Amino acid sequence: MLRGAVIGFGRMGLTHFSILNNHPEVQFVAVCDSSSFMLKNIGKYTGVETFKDYRKMIDRSGLDFVIVATPTGMHAEIVKYAIQSNLHIFVEKPFALNVQQGEELVEMLKGKKLVNQIGYVIRFNDVFIQVKKLLDAGVLGDLLTFKMEMHGPTLLKDAKSGWRSKKQEGGGCLYDFASHSIDLINYLIGVPDEITGSVLQHIHSINVEDALCSTFLYQSNLRGNLLVNWSDPSYRKPAYRFEVMGRKGKIIADLHAYKAFFREAPSFDGFTEGWNQRYITDFVKPVRFYVRGFEFTRQLDYFIDSIINATPCEMCTFEDGLKTDMMIERIVEDAAKRRA
Amino acid sequence: MDRIIFGDNQFFGINHMSEEKAQAQSERFKDINAIIKVIDTAYDCGIHAFMFNTHDRVAQLCDHFRANPEKYSDLRLYPSMPYAHKYANAVNEKGMIGALNDFVFAGRSVGQALQTVVRGGLTVIKRDMIEVMKILVDAEIRMFKGLNVKAVFLQNIITDLLLGLGAKTVFVDFANHIRSTYGVDPAFNTMNLPRLVDFLLKCGIENPIVCSSINKIGYLMNPDKPSYEKTIETKPFRPMAMSILASGAVAPKEAVEYVASQKNIRSIVFGASSKAHIQETKDMIDQHEWSIADPLTIDR
Question: Average pLDDT, whole number, for chain B?
Fold first, then answer.
């Protein structure tokens, strides 16, 4: 039985706790949060020990792993302490506030056999699992263009309070929202050689951006565009749209379905020449316990399986998180260059 | 309980299979009159039971029902609350505690708010989760005032989050609050039917109404279809089936046949937008012989 704890009991901390709390190999023993209201109620209704100081919690609880779901600004110091305490760590996205922090943490992990995972949950979405499989099989031939779009109604009026409106705590559309789609680009296509044409745009927020666009160039003849807006009231919840074209065809995907156009159909999964529509109901498998989406359970079960089986981490590692943080920093630098 | 209940997901751009379809629906039902037209079509087909999420648009619908009491004299409602996305956006802006504060105070009358002050503490921070839950429930249900409510459902995200926490007291107090304040059955939507049913029975909530996706391909049936079938066959609860078409992946005839083959299912919740689909689905459900003659008797 693995002993675990959650640090930061907001919406994601609560979700992670709920999903893993009845995992047959997991026992949650402690929760750490800054809110007395949360701690009082969590203690009362779940019976775990509660702490306001994560150091004290880690020192006293005999843990195997922690889940870090605090605002991004606190990730680095907590993860550092958890690595020093030899704990397996799942940390929410994005990894850290800046590249320097992330590099230090990745360096600290070297030589330690600790499972380390970042909450880039869309990689565990069933449609994007299929898209990755198709791209890895090379069904589109040499890639030429892609477009990653992400829109949502996350912030629809001036937010003066809350960490999402504070850059120094990891707020803003680029860090808190677009990081998912940037990670997906790294995962599906790779890190670009050049970033250009980046624009960070304010819609409601004063201190942080609400929308952005950027162009990614690769040494191969490949060009991609990133278009993100978290202040779009026409959406009910965050939505992705990924379109990629190669010499042999095209794939258009969102979280629920994808369609693929082939000039020559690959010889598997019943594909034919021309358009092929696939819905999530064609390939999704149920999960052990479902809260808010299949992918949330898949990512945590992957984390726990990696600990139990002592398998090397391959998905959403701290190194992957660092790669995304580096891209974020490059987008910020590129946008600043344009303004200067 | 009604055999056939008309659902409302199609009106609010909710489609678990396709974002494109969801978008198209959301455009079509922008106008409340477009929603009313479909509701009337269902009503005229003989479906008088409706499951509604506590969406702002539903508050408008409820005003319409109250304004036309004769037309809707046999209306039976099964509200599901809370409408989670309303809260999600507030949480993004203010954090969980800030959002809770807002909703708790928005949901209270001046008199109640004063009482709250007297009881100690202007904010939810000093209070117990259960008390906060009751205030939020009352605020959500207010839109159905004066209408014929048959059962009150806890929406699936909240049900499943609380199930994961193992918060027994919250379930028991929710059930008691719905029974004592509104005189109707508490009910639960879930994506994890087998686990929830076991849990509710352990909580001492007898013969609970539980609504979840039940379809031939096992879509949204966690952890798997066989566990659902076994639970439905052997446990003392009132199952309601939704997503029987698995967002369109199962043909209507097969879909109804599968649900009818699962003994003990009390109700089917389905949504549709055209008269042809509504009538077709209703006829298909009516054609089947259902294993429970009197849905209200507890005979297992």
Answer: 86
**Two structure tokens written together for B26:** 């959301």
Contacts of A27 in chain B (CB under 8 A): none
Q: Which class is B4-83+136-287 in CATH? A: alpha beta
Name the band, by pLDDT with cuts 50, 70 and 90, for residue B297. Answer: very low
Contact of B54 with B140, CB cutoff 8 Å: yes
Q: Give chain B positions within 8 Å (CB) of A19.
A: 164
Task: Tell me whether B88 touches chain A (CB under 8 Å).
Answer: yes
Q: For residue range A24-71, what is the model confidence (pLDDT) as tens digits?
A: 999 999 999 998 888 988 998 888 999 999 999 999 999 999 999 999
Domain ranges of chain B: 4-83+136-287
**What are A62's two structure tokens?**
């005999």
Neighboring chain B residues of A33 at a CB cutoff of 8 Å? none
3-state secondary structure of A13: helix
Tokens 């879909």 sit at which residue?
Answer: B255
Q: pLDDT of B190-220, one tens digit each?
A: 999 999 999 999 999 999 999 999 999 999 9
Euclidean distance between CA atoms A306 and B122, whole angstroms: 46
A104 touches chain B (CB under 8 A): no
Which numeric CATH code is attached to A2-120+296-316? 3.40.50.720
Cα angle B114, B118, B124 (rounded to 5 degrees) comes to 80
Written in H, E and C, the secondary structure of A148-201 is: EEEECCCCCCCCCCCHHHCHHHCCCHHHHHHHHHHHHHHHHCCCCCEEEEEEEE
Q: Do B125 and A22 touch (CB under 8 A)?
A: no
The pLDDT, as a whole number, for residue B16 is 66
In the sheet that holds A239-246, the strands lie side by side as A194-201, A211-218, A222-229, A143-151, A239-246, A249-253, A257-262, A274-279
Is cis: bond before B82, omega within 30 of 0?
Answer: yes
In chain A, DSSP assigns E strands to 2-7, 26-32, 49-51, 65-68, 88-91, 116-118, 143-151, 194-201, 211-218, 222-229, 239-246, 249-253, 257-262, 274-279
In chain B, which residue's Cα lies nearest the Cα of A173? B92
Inform me whether the C-beta atom of residue A38 falls under 8 Å from chain B C-beta atoms.
yes
- Residue A216's SS3 state is strand
Supply the ipTM of this predicted assembly.
Answer: 0.93
Q: At what angle do helices A179-188 and A126-136 cross, to 10 degrees?
A: 30
Please state the pTM of the whole predicted model: 0.92
Structure tokens at A339: 């303004």
Domain A122-285+324-339 annotated CATH 3.40.50.720:
no
User: Which pLDDT tens digit goes with each residue over A95-129?
Assistant: 999 999 999 999 999 999 999 999 999 999 999 99
Least confident of B57-66, B124-133, B167-176, B231-240: B124-133
| Residue position matching structure tokens 């037209």 | B37
